[in-house]
Specification:
Helix content: 25-40%
Structural class: alpha+beta
Shape: globular
Strand content: 35-45%
Largest sheet: 7 strands, antiparallel
Length: about 130
């Protein structure tokens, strides 16, 4: 079942982590989180982040300090538990993913998150 077609249980969520406050919203079983403010210790900056709560799964699209883009899927529960896939993706695919996430944010009136994603899209477009 796709995220867009799932029954919508949409609400804003803010949670405190070691890195500060994270903005996000739920659509069905999926938590959509905002982009990271910068690169982590391994040279990744997550742009689009999805966390599914049944079964647990994480999908992250990020950029690397060297200018490459990746998609990572990590299965935490279920038949594929423990499996992790990382693929390099093209800049055009990253922009498409961001555009889709912005459209979803706008659909659910998550304008602050849409603005943050638009900023990241513009940075990528200029690179």
């Amino acid at each position: 079942m796709s995220m867009e077609n799932s029954m919508c249980i949409c609400y804003n969520t803010f949670r405190k982590t070691l890195m500060g406050w994270i903005m996000g919203f739920m659509v069905g079983a999926w938590l959509h989180e905002g982009p990271d403010k910068g690169y982590d210790f391994s040279g990744k900056q997550a742009i689009v982040k999805h966390l599914c709560f049944g079964p647990l799964e994480i999908q992250i699209w990020y950029k690397l300090k060297d200018g490459q883009y990746c998609r990572e899927i990590h299965f935490i529960e279920g038949i594929q538990a423990g499996e992790r896939y990382t693929d390099y993706i093209e800049k055009s695919e990253m922009i498409e993913i961001i555009d889709n996430e912005i459209a979803l944010c706008e659909k659910y009136n998550e304008m602050n998150l849409a603005s943050l994603l638009q900023i990241e899209r513009e940075k990528i477009n200029l690179s």
